[in-house]
Design a protein that fits this description.
Number of helices: 19
Shape: globular
Number of strands: 0
Radius of gyration: 20 Å
Largest sheet: none
Strand content: under 5%
Oligomer: single chain
Helix content: over 70%
Order of helices and strands: HHHHHHHHHHHHHHHHHHH
Distance between the termini: 19 Å
């Protein structure tokens, strides 16, 4: 399965290209060929690249579901559920901001539960966030998650609160299966805990940067990460700045990211996310390489494929906006 992924050397080669066209020509020599050809091949219009990348990701998720042994399929559906939650957040965020469906369609990733045509119909026929969320909840096996998210939205009319609740409730659902996952693939369970940890750390950093209260932070923390809820809150309270907060993180090595953040005079918090995603990448790659023909192999592949698509979106978007190779490289989470 690793042979279907783009190596770092190729990613660096793509970043050095002067325009989008040679990037697409190189991708036509990879596993992305079929999806890019569906949208025009070498003559694909730049605005359709994201559609092709989402389509390729959807094909890979469908393949992972097919090849997962039946006794473990429920666990794989949890991994696929991460993409369904991202779809749901994208849809309700766009509805709250009164955006057209066509503005977000290219980023939606189809799954067995969430077909593109169904998402489009729901978005166009439901005229407020609550009704859309209820409709989305009926599409997938997470109706209760969407219901709880809308309870939060009803209190504040803040769609970000709803999105945070979707994350909290989804990972709570995942944690209910941790015993089974730990027995099936202990490393996969560790990978999820590490992802939760990253989300919590980013929440703390954004909260510190934008002056959120301790109560707001407490509501946003997702359970079952590496660091306890109380320890995260204590770190948030004691740190006077994002710099101090980053220095107090023990679950990820953020020394290099902190130095870059300080050099940017506090403007590049993305560096922290990239450092943590690279850590997740290395862990997922270890799963892929050392869990031969096991559930861990499939879980590791799912994580890396998602990061690969995100990196390619960043590359193409950066080139379209005239960014240099160095600028784009600094925005990509991809193992060196």
């Amino acid at each position: 399965m690793e042979s279907e992924l783009i190596p770092r050397s190729t990613m660096d080669e793509l970043a050095k290209q002067e325009s989008v066209e040679p990037i697409l020509a190189r991708l036509l020599q990879t596993s992305y060929m079929r999806s890019i050809e569906e949208y025009g091949g070498a003559k694909i219009r730049s605005e359709l690249v994201d559609f092709a990348l989402s389509s390729d990701l959807a094909k890979n998720l469908a393949k992972l579901e097919r090849v997962t042994p039946k006794p473990k399929r429920k666990l794989m559906l949890l991994f696929i559920g991460r993409f369904e939650m991202e779809n749901a957040k994208l849809l309700i965020d766009a509805k709250a901001k009164q955006r057209r469906f066509e503005e977000i369609e290219r980023f939606l990733v189809e799954t067995g539960s969430m077909r593109k045509v169904s998402m489009k119909e729901a978005y166009q026929n439901e005229h407020d966030v609550e009704a859309l969320a209820a409709r989305i909840g009926r599409m997938m096996p997470y109706k209760e998650i969407m219901s709880r998210a809308m309870s939060e939205y009803a209190k504040s009319k803040n769609v970000l609160e709803a999105e945070n609740e979707i994350d909290r409730q989804f990972y709570r659902t995942v944690s209910d299966s941790f015993d089974l996952l730990s027995k099936t693939s202990p490393e996969s369970a560790k990978l999820i805990r590490r992802e939760i940890e990253m989300k919590n750390i980013l929440t703390l950093m954004r909260a510190k940067r934008y002056g959120l209260t301790e109560e707001e932070v407490s509501r946003s923390i997702i359970g079952n990460g590496i660091t306890s809820h109380n320890a995260l809150l204590a770190l948030f309270k004691s740190a006077k700045s994002v710099d101090e907060l980053a220095s107090g993180i023990k679950s990820f090595d953020l020394k290099e990211a902190l130095a870059l953040y300080q050099q940017s005079k506090g403007t590049q918090t993305l560096r922290f996310e990239i450092a943590m995603r690279n850590s997740l990448f290395r862990m997922a790659l270890h799963l892929l390489r050392h869990s031969v023909l096991s559930f861990g192999t499939l879980a590791g592949y799912a994580y890396i494929k998602q990061m690969e698509v995100l990196a390619l979106r960043t590359l193409v978007d950066g080139k379209q906006n005239g960014l240099s190779s160095e600028e784009i490289g600094g925005m990509i989470a991809w193992n060196k």
